[in-house]
C-alpha cells in the first residue's frame, strides 16, 4: 500500500471540496456546515447504538446459555438424587417451607403493632382485622400472625 498516493488523493479531494465550498453563498456555507455536523453526530449516535445493541445481544445470549446449562445441571442433579433415593430406599423428600403462623398476644394489651419479619408497623386495618378475626398477614412481607389470648394458651417462641 502506497501511503503517499493515499495522502495525495485525500489532498486532491480536500482541494475540490474547498473550491466548491468557497464558491457557494454564505447561507449555503452555513447550512453545509450544519449538515456535515448533523451527519457526523447521527453517524456517531448510530455507531454507539449499534455497538450497544450488539453488546446487549451477546450479553443476553450468554445469560440464556448460562441459565440453560444451569437448568440442565440442576435437572441432572435432581435425577441423580432421585436415583440415589430409589436405590438406597430412603425417602428424603424435602418439606415445603410453610408460612409459619406466629402467635401474637392481644394487640390491645401488649401494644404489638409491628411485623417481626420486616419491622414495618401494622396499619389500623391490620390491627382491627387481627382483633376481629384473630389472623392477619403483613402487607409488606406476607408473614402470618395469629392472635393468641394469653389467658387460654401461652405463647411458644421458637
Description:
With 158 residues, the chain is mostly helical. It has four helices and three strands. The model is unreliable at 150-158 (pLDDT under 50).
Could you tell me how far the N terminus lies from the C terminus, measured between alpha carbons in angstroms?
Answer: 82 Å
Strand order of the largest sheet: 1-3-2
Name the overall outline. elongated
Low-confidence stretches: 150-158
Number of strands: 3
Observed structural traits:
158 residues, mainly alpha, three-stranded mixed β-sheet, 4 helices, 3 strands, 62% helix, disordered C terminus
Give the arrangement of secondary structure elements.
Layout: H1 3-23, H2 26-88, E1 101-105, H3 107-110, H4 124-133, E2 135-137, E3 144-148
Parallel strand pairs: 1-3
Antiparallel strand pairs: 2-3
Summarize the structure.
With 158 residues, the protein is mainly alpha-helical. It is 62% helix and 8% strand.
Amino acid at each position: 500500500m502506497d501511503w503517499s498516493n493515499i495522502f495525495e488523493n485525500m489532498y486532491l479531494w480536500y482541494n475540490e471540496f474547498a473550491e466548491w465550498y468557497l464558491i457557494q453563498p454564505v447561507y449555503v456555507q452555513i447550512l453545509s456546515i450544519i449538515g456535515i455536523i448533523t451527519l457526523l453526530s447521527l453517524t456517531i449516535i448510530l455507531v454507539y447504538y449499534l455497538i450497544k445493541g450488539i453488546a446487549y445481544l451477546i450479553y443476553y445470549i450468554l445469560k440464556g446459555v448460562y441459565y440453560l446449562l444451569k437448568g440442565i445441571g440442576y435437572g441432572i442433579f435432581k435425577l441423580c438424587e432421585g436415583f440415589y433415593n430409589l436405590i438406597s430406599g430412603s425417602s428424603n423428600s424435602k418439606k415445603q417451607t410453610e408460612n409459619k403462623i406466629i402467635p401474637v398476644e392481644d394487640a390491645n394489651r401488649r401494644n404489638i403493632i409491628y411485623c417481626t419479619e420486616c419491622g414495618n408497623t401494622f396499619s389500623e386495618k391490620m390491627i382491627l382485622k387481627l382483633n376481629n378475626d384473630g389472623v392477619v398477614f403483613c402487607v409488606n412481607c406476607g408473614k402470618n400472625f395469629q392472635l393468641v389470648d394469653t389467658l387460654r394458651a401461652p405463647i411458644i417462641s421458637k
